[in-house]
Structures are given as structure tokens and as C-alpha cells.
Specification:
The structure is a homodimer.
Chain A: H1 16-23, E1 28-32, E2 37-39, E3 47-53, E4 56-61, E5 67-73, E6 78-79, E7 92-95, E8 99-105, H2 106-115, H3 117-143, H4 146-165, E9 171-173, H5 178-185, H6 189-202, E10 205-208, E11 211-214, H7 217-224
Antiparallel strand pairs in A: 1-8, 2-7, 3-6, 3-8, 4-5, 4-7, 9-11, 10-11
Helix pairs in contact in A: 2-3, 4-6, 4-7, 5-6
Chain B binds a DNA duplex (30 and 30 nucleotides) through helix 6.
DNA sequence: CGGAAATTTGAAATCGCTCAATGATAGTGG
DNA sequence: CCACTATCATTGAGCGATTTCAAATTTCCG
């Protein structure tokens, strides 16, 4: 039942041996129910998490019960990597749906990084990709109104699901409540509700509960106004295999 | 007159040999005047830039003349790294003051990454740090009002300058026009002006033109409401020196 | 079926935007 | 040193998007 770990990062197609290497780092499998907290902001972060199944959210908490969901994690994402440069976790990780997580000690992760240039490069490039996505998210929140943000967010999820499932599907089953959606969009829950309804009436999407069907993809894209990014990279980073000065194990 | 390149990343104290290695990657030095464009969003990005002197901004452009400045680059920053995962540059880089830039081919950068685990680790950690800063920026824009964003931004700049100069200085000489400030804060230029004036009247800062003096640091921090991050990291990442399976050269 | 959580709706208040005009400042050439 | 011009900063007034507070309705789950 274990999903392939091949999207540990997006820039490396892992062969079987390497996949086992990564899976070997797992020290524990945990399950969480919807709304459970996986890790709290500020707590020491000696572990990172591989999201085997379910959706998780990364939230930055601000005073007074307000918070911003800075990232939606989908299956095969690696959670908690930003926190490795801090003494306490940068973000609160919360289960948005029932979730299965593989726990990996930071030390193992670092060891892999140090011993395998292929993985190191892949992780580095994945981090850059995350930066771009955050930049786009910031731009969306700073420069567009609620309906545009919603459109951009739905498209973002749609596109990421398309990569995972290897085919586009106009139907999105969002596990997010409207309150959580509001946390993502940077608006209030009440306004999230009105915006959702408003987008529905435009006919660009159709909504039945948390099931959202995209009816007019091009129009929705135009509304969302996100730059369309093609994530690729030069062959400079495609390290052939070991034996160019790197080793896969220790000594 | 060349500034030390020692802050190419924040997680590695480079020794002399390594510094030369990095400097050796430079193929060209360029100068730009205020407001000149260093690199345009969407254009092929085969180079990254070391900001030797001056301030530069990274902007994501949206339709209709609107844009979001997603990062303020200070001297010794590395510009353009997010774009290495894309076919076209993720952002427009623009000189906010007179600027001196060292141009580095992505291929050299990749080669360094591949051949030196110390540099690779430092770059990776620096990328994670950038992610955290973007997360905080997103939260600031999404969840706080204009004055709080301004406070948070001033503090952000203040703290980064303190690191570069190795001492805190309450006086900040912002080279940004109010329009550019607005691009950073995610508000309109007019409102940036009013907010600036308003913050001035609170007495937390004092303003003479673009010279801003922080008068009450703790109060300003409390207003800005950013989580205070201590950027550190485990010794796992402090690779001793080569010879743990890595080599410095090729072959 | 009952209770809790989530969604929906209304009305008033607020923050930031837009449009438009005025004032200040800095760089330029005479 | 001054006039000239462009850029930048400031101010006012009205409008619109989003928030806030509060209540009603629906859905979900045990």
C-alpha cells in the first residue's frame, strides 16, 4: 500500500536502490486524524516528515488566533524542511485530512545529502521550486482580490494533483473547510464563503459541498492571473550516477 | 574595493581557498544605475548574480503594470537562484540603488555544488532560510494591516543590515521610493505614503526623507508581529572538510 | 434523533483604493 | 546660480472590497 517515494523531489527520478535508501531513513510511521497537529511552530525540529498519504497544511501563527497557511502539502511531499535552519519549527503542521506520515531524522536526511550528490542536487532544486511557488503565492495575496486568489489557488491544487495522478482532472475534492480555505487565501472565513459562492455563480467552477469541478479552465486561469511556470532545469544538474567523486554510502 | 564574498550563504564560513573558488566563477562585472533592469522575468536565465554592492529588488510582475517585490537583496546576496528551475526567469531583478554585480554562469554554480559538499550544504540551507523569510513575508501581507507590514519590513531590513555590518544601527537609509515601498508592502503608493506618515506620528520611528531612524525597537517589533527566528542549524550540516567521500575537483 | 461543527446570510463599520490635484526635491543645461 | 523639468511626496474626497459581529440554517456524525 506504500506509495512510491519517487516524488521526494521533483528533479530526480530515483532508481530502485536509491528509493530504498530513502525509505531506509524512515524510523516511524504515524497516523493523524483530520485537524490533528503534526508538529507545532517553535517546537524543536529534529525530524522531517514524508507525507505518504493525505493532505497537510503548513501554518505560520500570528498573535490572536490568526494564522496563515503558507503551503498545502499533498501526498509525497516532504514536510518540515524549512525548519532545519531554525532552533524551533518555522511552521505548525496540521492534518487537513486523515494523514499518514513517515518520520525521518534530520541527521539521516543530512547524511543522505552529504553522501549523494544526486539527492543533494534534487533537494536543492526542489527548494528553489518551493521559493518560486511562495513568491507566486505572495504576489497573489498581495496583488489580487479574493476571487482571483481563490481561482489561483484552485488552479494550483489542480495542477499539482495532475502531476501526482499523471492526468488532469477537473474535479477537485478539497478536504479544506472554508475556515481553512480562508487561512490559505488570506481572507476571513465569511468572505471565503461569499467568494466561493460568487465564483460558483460565474460558472467557471461548479460546487457541490467541498467537491469543486472546474468548468472553464482557460477562463479560470485568466482570472487567477498567475504566471505560468514551466519547471525544468538544465542538464548541468543531472548528475549522471555516482563515481564522479561522490559515493552513495559512508566510506 | 571588492567586498568579501563570505556571505554567499549564511551557513558556511568560507576559508580563503574556497572564497577564491567562488570568485573564480565570476565571468563579468556589471554596473547598473538606479531603476535599471538587471534581468527581466521570463527571459532565459543562464546566469546568477552576486550582488557586490547596492540594493536590488526581485519583482513578480502581474498584468496591468502591477507587481510585487518579493525580495529585497542587499550586498553579498546571490540573485536569480530561484530561476534555475525554470525555463524563463521567475522574477524581474531591478536596481534599487546604483549596483555592482558579478555574473556567474549557472553551469559554474552547478559545478561548484556538485564538487563541494560544504558549498552544497550551505546553499541548500540558505535556500531553506529564504523559504522561511518568504513564509513570514506572506503571513505579514496576508494577515496584518499596512502599518504593521511597514513595521515588519523596516525591522527585516534593520536586522539584515545588522548582520552585514556586524552591528545594529537604528538609522536606515532606504533607497526605495514610496512607490517601490508600496510594491514591497503590497499596498498602493498613496497608502504607503499615508502609512509612513502615520507611523512617524506614533513616534516609533523618525523620518527625514528616506532616512528612517528607529526610536523604539521593542515597540516596533511588537507592532510588526513577526515571529522572531533564530537561524542556526545542527552540526550535522557542518561538514568538516573534504575527504568524506567528496572531492573538490572533477574526474 | 440530537448535538456539534460548518456553512450561509445580513447589516454596519473600516481599511485601503482610486482619481485628481498640489507641493517638494533633485538633476540638468544655460 | 537659476530656471526648467521630471520625479517623487503629499493631501483630499468618495468609493469599494473586506471585515466584523451576530444570527440562522444546514450538514455531518455518533
Amino acid at each position: 500500500m506504500k506509495k512510491p517515494i519517487a516524488r521526494l523531489s521533483d528533479f530526480l527520478r530515483l532508481d530502485e536502490a536509491e528509493r530504498q535508501l530513502v525509505e531506509g531513513m524512515t524510523i516511524e510511521t504515524r497516523r493523524y486524524r483530520r485537524h490533528e497537529i503534526i508538529h507545532s511552530q517553535g517546537e524543536p525540529a529534529r525530524e522531517i516528515f514524508y507525507l505518504a498519504d493525505g493532505w497537510a497544511g503548513a501554518c505560520v501563527d500570528v498573535a490572536a488566533g490568526s494564522r496563515q497557511m503558507v503551503k498545502i502539502h499533498l501526498p509525497s511531499d516532504l514536510l518540515g524542511t524549512p525548519s532545519i535552519v531554525l532552533d524551533g519549527a518555522a511552521e505548525t503542521l496540521i492534518a487537513l485530512s486523515p494523514v499518514t506520515i513517515e518520520v525521518i531524522p534530520v541527521s539521516s536526511f543530512a547524511k543522505l545529502f552529504m553522501s549523494s550528490p544526486r539527492h543533494a542536487a534534487a533537494m536543492f532544486l526542489a527548494a528553489q521550486k518551493e521559493r518560486v511557488m511562495l513568491m507566486d503565492r505572495l504576489t497573489s495575496v498581495a496583488r489580487t482580490n479574493a476571487m482571483q486568489r481563490l481561482a489561483a489557488f484552485l488552479l494550483h491544487v489542480h495542477d499539482r494533483l495532475a502531476i501526482i495522478n499523471e492526468e488532469a482532472n477537473p474535479l477537485i475534492e478539497l478536504p479544506l473547510s472554508q475556515e481553512e480555505l480562508a487561512d490559505v487565501l488570506g481572507i476571513t472565513p465569511v468572505h471565503a464563503n461569499r467568494t466561493m459562492a460568487q465564483l460558483d455563480t460565474t460558472g467557471l467552477v461548479e460546487r457541490r459541498g467541498r467537491r469543486i469541478t472546474i468548468k472553464d479552465l482557460p477562463a479560470l486561469r485568466s482570472l487567477g492571473a498567475s504566471p505560468d511556470r514551466k519547471y525544468e532545469c538544465d542538464p548541468e544538474w543531472q548528475v549522471p550516477v555516482p563515481d564522479t567523486g561522490w559515493r552513495t554510502g559512508r566510506s
